[in-house]
Amino acid sequence: MEYMKIMKNNSYQSKTYPFYFLVGALVLYLMLFVIPGVMGIYYSFTDWNSYSDKINFIGLQNFKTIFFSTTGDRYMFYIFNTLKFTVVTTILKTALALMLALLVNEGIKFKNLHRAIIFMPAILSMLVTGLIFKSILNPETGLLNEFLKAIHLGGLAQQWLVDLKLAFGSIMAVDIWKGLGYIMTIMLSGLQSIDKSYYEAADIDGGNYFKKFRYITYPLMLPTIAVTLVLNLLYGLKVFDAVYVLTNGGPGDATDVMYTVIFRQFSNGMYGLGTTMSTILFVIMVFVGFFVIKLLNKEEVDM
Amino acid sequence: MKKKTFLNVIKNSVTCLISLVMFVPILLIFINSLKDKYESSSMSISLPKSIHLENYATVINEGKLIESFSNSMMYSVVSIILGIIVTTMAAYVISRNKTKLNKFMYFFIVLGLAMPINFVTLMKVMQFTHLLNTRLGICLLYAAVKIPFSVFVIYGFIGTIPKDIDEAGIIDGSGPLTLFFKIIMPLLKPVIVTVGILNFLDAWNEFVLPLYFLNSTSKWPMTLAVYNFFGQFASSWNLVCADIVLTSLPVIIIYLIGQKYIVAGMTSGSVKG
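ok -> structure tokens follow
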């Protein structure tokens, strides 16, 4: 009897919610997302390029070129740049966004206007943002240097995107300018979900601002902070547009990251190397992604 | 009490300063789009001596903006409609029928949030399927890259719709397709609007996929067209600025109208409660 009931239940479920509903999403996702990713692993062991029709299996040669290259392209340096971009922007965006969220959370005039303005860069295209800052950071006519001269700090004026030492920092700064509002908005909704009665209780106990932050805000914001860390992490590893538009990897190859190098290899027909680079990124990110989803799902259960 | 007012003054000033840093670059572009070529060459924040609205007309003609605008519109709208249909259907079945297979499918699809695109091998797939350098190919790509995010958000929303509704529909004798499109779809309106707006913004702003997979300029979306225009007219900042304003106008309008939905969608999944 029990068995029959389960059978009937199962067939009811699969009749009402048939698997073919998934087909559209699965086909698109598999064809344009998963299969290229898996194919990439295969092609990273080949010498695939645009100059020859034959694709030869060359074992680990591409990986050797990337990890132990001593001449020409500095692949390890590009991987290092990508990681540097990811770590620096993640830390700065998280810290600044949290401070900003605390700032505009309450006690501010025109609160909504400020929030709307700070969020605004997030909806612009990175390409447009890049063009705007190409103008602002221009050494001769750019607004930033003009402003520094106007307030008699002309000595601080720099060749922002041209100087070998500054270019990468400038790119990260532009990226933070664009991404800050988004992370702040997430932090704000985190702050607003904290029960006000905790603070009221702390007020009665005479807790000051920093104690309240240390013992109430910070621990209750940890899940939100964790999520923004993850978002920034995944975003940072995939960075392409900011670098491509602002410097295209230059000066020289000082600001190249993994995806700009992949694009160059793609344009030059060095498909085997390009796909190896992609595969390395793929492995790093699937590894990170696995833990990300675990984290996101755990939160769902907790709430 | 006095200390508190002092603190408030500081808080307000710092906030104003930050808003200024965020707003000035956007204002700069708008102001310079109204100047003549000579005045805009210094890209200063000073107000234009005279208003040159004809910059916009020039840009529309020289930059072939009508063409790229229609391209962008088509890519965004088609990919959203297609994406919404396939992802709501998938998320609905995954959420309602929690078999082992479906649970795996959810995990498998959402994992895509963290996956980078392998553009090199994607090109091979596009070639093989004859989608390379076609408008249809770009629409499918835009839809595909948004599948993990859309399924993730829509799945979360479907959980809030009581299952009794489905049963009532079944008793009325409707099949799964009628049930879904006639009864469930209308209930998903809030999440469809949110996901639709967000995906529209992303599709409109996208330029990497066309950069890789569209080689004819006549198929370029507005973003790539503005980049190309910048290459041609780098010395005419007034025109470049006008082009930037026109390219960004649709997303800014949508932001102003749908701010509530955008913020809700961007924070959904990241903060619960």
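The first helix of chain B runs from residue 2 to 32.
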